[in-house]
Amino acid sequence: MLFQKIEKDKTLWLRYGIVLLIVSIIVVSTVSYLVRAYTVPAKANILQSCAFLNKKDAFAVENFLNREESVLKMASRVANLLVENHGVSGQIESLKTRTREENPRFGDLYGFVNGKPYGKYPLADSVNPAGEPWFQGALLAHGDIARIPIHKGKESMVVLSKRLSDMKSVLALNVKLSALRNFVNPWTLPSIWMIMDEQGLIIAHSNVANQGLNYSSSEFWNNDERNLADRVTSSSNEAPGEKQFLLNYDGVDYQVFSTPIKGGWFMVRMVENKVLWNEMYWNVFKGIAVVVLLYVLMILLMSLSLMNRFRAIRVSQAKSGFLTNMSREIRTSITGLLGMNSIVMKEVRDDGLKEYLKNIQNTGQGILSLVNDVLDVCRIESGKMSIVSMEYDIFSVLADCYSANELKASAKKLRFTVDCNPDIPSSLWGDENRIRQIINNLLSNAIKFTEVGEVTLLVNYENLPPVGTLKSDEYVMLSFTVKDTGTGIKKDELGLIFNKFASQNMDDPSEGIGLGLCLTKELVEKCGGQITVNSRLGEGSSFTVRIPQLVLNIEPMGDFALRYNGLGRKRGDFSGIFLAPEARILIVDDVEQNLKVLRGFLRRFKVQVDVAVSGAQCLKLAQSKHYDLIFLDHMMPVMDGVETYRRLKSLDNFINKDTPVIALTSEGSNEVSESFLVMGFADYLPKPIKERDLQRALKWYLPKQLVLSGEDIQEVAGAQTSVDTIQLPMPAPTYNDEIELLQVTVNPYEKLAPFKDCLDIKAGLEYCADDSDIYIEMLQEFIASPLHRNVETCFRNEDWENYIFYMHVLCDSSSAIGAVSMAEKFQNLENACRESRMNIVRENHDLVMALHAELVRNIQKGLEG
User: Fold this and answer.
1) Is 584-707 assigned to CATH 3.40.50.300?
2) In this structure, what DSSP letter does residue 609 have?
3) Which of 31-35, 74-78, 340-344, 455-459 comes out lowest in average pLDDT?
4) Per-residue pLDDT, 525
5) Which class is 748-864 in CATH?
6) Confidence grade of residue 240 (pLDDT, cut at 50, 70, 90)
7) Residues of 197-208 as b/e, b for ≥16 C-beta within 10 angstroms?
8) What are the extents of the domains in the chain?
9) Cα separations (Å) of 515 from 66, 87, 437, 439, 497?
10) pLDDT for 480
């Protein structure tokens, strides 16, 4: 018990871990998506902001130079007048003084006017201006202002020069780079900035040591500076105007922003890539940290909740275990007590004492019923309550319920009747025991709360709409209604009657602890049905249960009262019997053993059978004759069942186009088997074929007009003295049959005793309709089969495709004769070969074939003996 609890805890923890894994994947995926959704626009915004700031710096520098140029233009206009009027040097000096007064931060105004030098040339090596860059630049500017950077020693400046109207005089004005640097705004991010011209010359730089260097010259050839200059100044393959690009500079990635300035200059700013994204990444990290913190908090809360859930489950399991053990102990004692009481009742002759003993018996039965209810409730709470569907006879269930409750009703002098629709199908598919328990609970409850009047059980059915391959007459809604004339239930208490221990909440808990209706509701829902109640206080109650059921035999149940009283058996009971002598069936299988088994099964129903041993033969027969049903094997050589079915359905003017085709398959999984329905097969039957499955398929898929029902057979029997004289298949014994059938035939197990040590005879007979002659034929076919030689040939030639096929056939053949262990070994080799585990095939092939040979020898000895 302890280990079971530990395993249950492991299962719960495993489920919890799977849930956490799924939640974690969702959280990680969501966070990744949100991070991408944030970082992509954030990066775009940062780049746009930096480009704007760089553009702003370029605009400030350009404005500053434009103001200086306007001063030089004004001075040039005055100088032009002086030159034209042959002004004197004093007038030129006056112009110089005014210029300094208006712009005190500028250098001196100087130049070469009327063939004479004027003012002090900055950074000049001689008084001859012809060789100076500022003089040459002005002449080449064709009347525009030239911007000439000059770097010499610690002195660096930009000279603005302009040619005068006499075409040989030049007036110049110097601007110190220190003044120019003041107009480049510092960024909050550490960065490198520079002003570069179109030849790669550095006019100004955040690092003064770089001023005057030419990044395009051979001095920096193939260096990072050369790459920077090429990217900034190049116009090919680049969009005009502003530029943004990534550059590796001294082993560090930089984001470069370049904005053009008037005169062929560029404002360039370099920001280290990781510094540029630092703030964004920090914001992302903070967001992820918050999410992780919330996630961890959620995990802690879920873990605490799960631990509390574990405690509650353990407490509930302990309670259920205690109730189960206690109930079993009480049930054991009560069962013994009732047994002893029954013995005493048979020995006692005194009527008064017998009456006391009957009371003891009735009270004990009530206690036993209550204990059983407690056990069922515990099973439901622990999840151990399961529905076991099987074929059952509805008449037997109703007869049991009537017998169990008739004495209780008679003891209270109540009228107890059963009103059944005689057309209810006689054989259904469902949980017979649970349906019997539901009806008994409702009847017992009705009798318990009824003192005067009657209790009635109404049984009816209605056909349901087709579901999938089920037709409307193969799927019914079975309904039970229990009416009583008892005390009834208050309107405000109707919602409580299905609760556990409901009687404790009611005003008049006359009997019981309120488990019966709660259990009934749980059972009804487990069976896929529903329960409703109508009641009026003082007038009685009516409980209706509706449960869907499959129909296995459409023959009507008949009149319940007549059958219960034995009148229905006077001329023989034909329930469950049907014949189809006019029906024609085609069986397609490449294994003769399987064909013999199916022919043996179908012999009982008098159907006409044709057989085909290959897909090609099936196509030939199906085009020449009409069949009412086709059984088609899945695994066949050359053309398997699926391919055969496809070719059948693709034929033009095919006479069997609407004939149901049922696949015969050895595949065990539901997914593989149900795939046949998707392909268009009407149904599938697992191999080896069982008689019950075959009989059900015949009932469902043969045309109804070809099937002789029980009534038809009864008419045919007519004046016959017994059913056996017309060679009809014997039906299953009916409920409460008064005639004891004596066994006069030889026990088939005695005849097959020589094979009991090597075969499961019971399993083999089950696959042969319990016909020992067919079973002997199957054994003879098995030992004469050449399959083992075919397998050996495929193994030697490494023909693995056919090896799989023959192993599959050997597995089926072994199962059909009851060689279960041998069939498992063949199946293991087949699966290993399908999965390309050839080492297992090679290691085990010889051993398996040796065991097969030994099995053949043992069967041979049994047949000869």
Assistant:
1) no
2) E
3) 340-344
4) 86
5) mainly alpha
6) low
7) bbebbbbbbeee
8) 2-180, 186-276, 279-357, 388-565, 584-707, 748-864
9) 100, 128, 13, 15, 9
10) 92
